[in-house]
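RETRY 2/3 - previous attempt timed out on the joint model. Re-submitting the same 485-residue input unchanged.
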Amino acid sequence: MKRLEFLRYATLGQYLPGDSRIHRLDPRIKLVAFGLIVAAVTFSNAYLANGILLLAILLLLGLSRLPLGYGLQSARLALPALVILALFQLVMPARQFGTGATCAIIWQWRLLQLTDCTLRLIVVSTARLIALLVLTNLLTFTTKTSDLATGVEDLLAPLQRIGVPAHELALTLSIALRFVPTLALQMERVVKAQTARGADFGASSRFQVIKTTRRLLPLLVPLFVGGLRRSERLALAMEARCYTGGRGRSRRTRARAGLTDYVALIAVGAFCAAMWVIDFGALDRALWLWLAGAR
Amino acid sequence: MLNDSDQQPQQTSTLLVRRIVIAGIMVAITVLLGLLPVGGFIPFPTGVNATTLHIPAIIGGILEGWPVGGLVGFFFGLSSFLQAASPLFKDPLVAIVPRLFIGVTAYLAYAALKRVNELLAVGVGAAVGTATNTGLVLAMAVLRGYMNVNLAATVAVTHGIPEIVVAVLITVAVVGAWHQIGRRSGGSSV
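RETRY 2/3 succeeded.
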């Protein structure tokens, strides 16, 4: 019966109250910094660069004073996906990764082969995955979802002039966050009602795709139709209250960035710029040569 | 669009209130399906689960036009990026960019065929939207070096085709049901 308590699963942005430097940062600054670091992680292909980024992110985790377990949560769940990716790469290696140079074969056994590109891909994507998992946990654990939504709106506001619907994006996000628990409750009610009538939503054979889908229809159709009906009502209510979009609306509380916020932003910006400018590919090669020489 | 004959709100905003609200609810459904143990995936013979999370983007696009489809797709990408536990989807270029187009292509296919047959148009829209998702995600995965072309083609066949079947079944059922409700209640929703 516990499986049917859906509200339990509907946890989003599990904010952990705290008073660390990271908690107190302006949400807008936090979002910009988050974006910068994500970009730096996404575009780094070198071993050394990924190592440095991972260290930097763990340092931020330390600054946030979150328990290490929370930060690394879900990294454990990622393990099977990583193993599958690695195995696939051994059978069907990627032609090139990152540098664009041809790959040298390090180890070969019948059909299996390990090239330096494959090795790089496996190591770098593992580092990247852990870095981004910790980083997203860091953001959602230290920032309230409402602060995130207003932060997004404030950041996109200047783009409104060139036609980016900043307010609409933020409103969509707030509505979505507001309705996740409501819809979870609605779905819970439907599932319980169907189960009481003998429906079985448990495990099914992998070979009956259509049958499984059809069994889910009595669940998904009420979810969508209920949601659509709710949105009709909500839109009508908003229009009845003369809601006409974001223009000229003010807010009760306004975030104000202080000196520490700007210092943090400059530090992150400088760090990411350095990661972008430095040729880590060359450093990697130098490191390899040095390691080989030392041996 | 199926259900807006009765509403002509006067809005200066680029997106009507109604569209924003529907987009918001579709995003909520996407996020919810991703969190629940039931409904967000269908087990497949290949051993990997097929997703149903892109279906709200398709339904949003078909019911309310491409801006809503694009918006829902964007947030689907964002939530898949934030919740991902696999290196492939922890890459924003793979997780977010391809998803922007799901609802857009679904809407275009639907709009092109709407005059021929409404339900056929919905089905084709769902198929095209799903193919967009699978195709663009795999193309991006190849471009970013996570897969080689052979592997991507294999996944496209083993995954893409059953995913299309699932999406068509669900989308046609939902849009059909919603369409009927609109007709029966004469357009009033209160």
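The CA atoms of residues 14 and 288 of chain A lie 42 Å apart. Closing ticket.
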